[in-house]
Amino acid sequence: MQVATPGAFFIQLDVYTEPTQYLVKVHARRTRLSLEIKHQQILVKVPSNCPTDLIESFLRKQQHWIKRAISKSSSVTQFHRNYQSGEPIWFKGEAFTLDIHTQCHGSAVIVNEQDKTISVFLSAKVKHTARQTRKLLRAFYLEQAQLIIPDLLSACEQKVGLHSSSLDFKFYQWRWGCCYQSGKVMFNPLLMAAPIEKIECVIIHELCHLKHMDHSRSFWALNRRFCDQCHKTKQWLKAHHQEVYLPPV
Ligand SMILES: [Zn+2]
């Protein structure tokens, strides 16, 4: 019996003429196989010591679902951030328009709530416009997070009855929050792109990890007692990821 190892593999499915690539991730604590389509790629999560035959028959059984899911994900229009004027830029759950001004006296980011624009002013010294725009936008989100999240956190702590020991911020690509054994909580400043109630949902989720450091049933029972919006929040963050994430240039 051949046992699955993590990595990329190919399988010939009846629904496709060419062999299809799939990624395998091995999780020691997992008991069943799971399947998802991530960035139009097939991802199979398996328990350790899972026979490769079992993965292949599982993929064959699910092939019609796989085909539908892949074509659905590819029909979603792809957005590419180029850091140019006119692009959408999210702030507190609203899509603003990015407006870039070059050759200015200094650098700044200004939010105009009235005409829903976020203007980036770049000094005449700036050589790489896109890179500098990204840098200023990240600094803007961090500043907003430092301004708004501490109060949201204490309100959520009151609500949940669990208190963090410290708060910090870190930019991640696919993570929104993080909770450490020490009681420290960490949030992604890009959360400031999301509506406030979604930010609160992420905060409550992380606070619940102070009691349960896993995603066990008891964790979810506790999380649901204070907020049952996790699924919707996750959907929002996923659906807006391309517009929210600020890719390096
Ligand atoms: Zn979690």
TrEMBL record:
Domain annotation YgjP-like metallopeptidase: ranges: 32-240
Cross-referenced Gene3D superfamilies: Metalloproteases ('zincins'), catalytic domain (3.30.2010.10)
Superkingdom in the source lineage: Bacteria
InterPro entries xrefs: UTP_pyrophosphatase-like, YgjP-like_metallopeptidase
One Pfam family, short name: YgjP-like
Cross-referenced PANTHER family: UNCHARACTERIZED PROTEIN YGJP (PTHR30399), UTP PYROPHOSPHATASE (PTHR30399:SF1)
Protein's name in the database: M48 family metallopeptidase
Organism whose genome encodes this protein: Psychrosphaera ytuae
